[in-house]
Design brief:
about 190 residues, alpha+beta, 11 strands, about 25% helix
């Protein structure tokens, strides 16, 4: 039996509020309230060194930081982290690694700007690491996909209120395990 040896991380829980209502004047000149999402910058520091500024709704900032660092190859597992603290007064996230001598310079100097309206950035060799992954394929019946899509319909809460966000889900054949909405698909993927 395999045991989970992941240690407990020191995490803040700094969720930002959902969309807020603003007063608008519609096409008929009438005042009405309309919900909008608030996109905020979150500057990520690893061992006090600035890595990146992410634009986010801020609903799951600690998960976003962890996922971003993992998906960009700065860490390989949760065991590489001691803590992630988010402070919305300074719009910053401080991540501390178990190896405080980690060399970030090599990763930070090799950047790839991705295509798309978001102009994303990938760091040092992340694409090379993907080539080494052995991902098993699986087959899904069309009925399973439709079932999951039906379940997803109920999850897009922020999108239904105000639009302008993307949702991402982690599912198995029966249920949605996790669902996150954020301003960018990549943020939602990282937060999951």
């Amino acid at each position: 039996m395999k045991t989970n040896k992941t240690k407990k991380l020191d995490l803040t829980k700094s969720k930002r509020p959902s969309p807020k209502n603003i007063e608008v004047i519609d096409e008929y000149g009438s005042k009405r309230e309309f919900p909008i999402t608030g996109e905020l910058p979150l500057t990520v520091y690893v061992n006090k060194q600035e890595v990146v500024t992410l634009m986010t709704l801020g609903h799951y900032p600690e998960a976003l930081v962890i996922g971003y660092l993992r998906n960009q190859g700065f860490i390989s597992s949760l065991n590489d982290l001691k803590s992630v603290h988010v402070d919305w007064e300074t719009n910053s996230a401080a991540a501390k690694t178990t190896n405080e001598q980690i060399n970030l310079e090599n990763k930070l100097t090799h950047k790839i700007i991705t295509s798309g309206c978001g102009q994303g950035t990938s760091f040092g060799g992340v694409w090379d690491d993907l080539k080494l992954k052995n991902i098993k394929s699986t087959k899904l019946k069309q009925s399973v996909i439709y079932k999951i899509l039906k379940l997803l319909h109920d999850k897009n809460e922020i999108y239904r209120q105000s639009g302008a966000v993307h949702g991402c889900a982690l599912c198995d054949r029966e249920k949605i395990i996790d669902f996150v909405e954020d301003v960018g698909r990549h943020n939602a993927v990282d937060a999951i």
